[in-house]
Design a protein that fits this description.
Shape: rod-shaped
Number of domains: 2
Structural class: mainly alpha
Number of strands: 0
Length: about 260
């Protein structure tokens, strides 16, 4: 619609300038005839009038058309910039959705590092009011990473490759913690941080998540001590292996019972 109006205005400009040019050409070709019929004074007045009126109209039409063209260019530029910004926001939203979809997918192993990044992101932005609780849970996941590193180091320095299956136990605990955090993040994604009731619900879920995480971390720590005790007493005390198996069984049973609980 705007392009059509611009074209019509362009036609008007061309028409005015064309008429002015035609009038000038006519005066030039009919100079002698006009002077003979009406006299030199009349011709001069006629020429002055045509040049003045036609020149002023032509210049005015060109200026108006130029102003309109410039306004149109500015409008189009702003429109293009807004469209580009909308496209950028749309792409960012899609990337964010893909990131959440990948990190929080229940169909494959969850990325603990990316979940920690989401906790930081929520603590710094939408859920800044609950940043302390969010960072506490992130600290738990950091502690879990440290436990995994300690286990790997313990097995390595003792040449205990036969006990590599103990790393699977800690990996399952980490995935269990990720699952609990995922539940809270899912709720936070749809909750309204401006609603007092929603904030209370999120805070309660964070508290439950933190308490369960502390419980699992405590069991993992006891498991690591039992493993260290077993490695220290290899060949001396058969009870150390029995204690190690007890801790391992306790951790796995705890995780499995929680996963079977629909309210977990």
């Amino acid at each position: 619609m705007q392009d059509r109006k611009q074209k019509i205005k362009g036609i008007y400009v061309i028409l005015i300038i064309g008429l002015f040019a035609a009038a000038c050409v006519y005066l030039h070709l009919q100079t002698d005839s006009i002077i003979i019929r009406n006299g030199i004074r009349f011709y001069r007045k006629l020429r002055t009038g045509v040049l003045s009126v036609g020149g002023i109209l032509s210049v005015l039409m060109l200026v108006l058309y130029g102003v309109e063209w410039r306004r149109r260019q500015i409008w189009q530029k702003e429109k293009d910039e807004k469209t580009a910004q909308m496209e950028v926001r749309k792409e960012e939203m899609l990337r964010e959705q893909e990131k959440h979809k990948e990190v929080l997918s229940v169909s494959k192993k969850m990325d603990a590092q990316k979940i920690q990044e989401l906790l930081l992101e929520n603590a710094a932005e939408k859920w800044h009011g609950l940043s302390q609780q969010l960072l506490q849970i992130r600290m738990q996941m950091n502690i879990m990473d440290e436990y995994e590193e300690k286990l790997s180091h313990l097995l390595d320095v003792n040449g205990a490759a036969a006990l590599a299956n103990t790393e699977d136990v800690l990996d399952r605990v980490e995935q269990y913690l990720c699952k609990n955090v995922r539940k809270v993040l899912n709720y936070m994604d749809v909750a309204d941080n401006d609603s007092d009731e929603a904030v209370r619900q999120v805070e309660r879920r964070l508290q439950i998540c933190h308490e369960e995480g502390q419980k699992q971390l405590q069991q993992v720590q006891e498991f690591l001590f039992a493993l260290a005790e077993f490695l220290n007493k290899q060949g001396e005390d058969d009870n150390s292996m029995e204690m190690l198996e007890i801790y391992k069984s306790t951790i796995l049973s705890s995780i499995e019972s929680e996963m079977k609980d629909p309210d977990a």
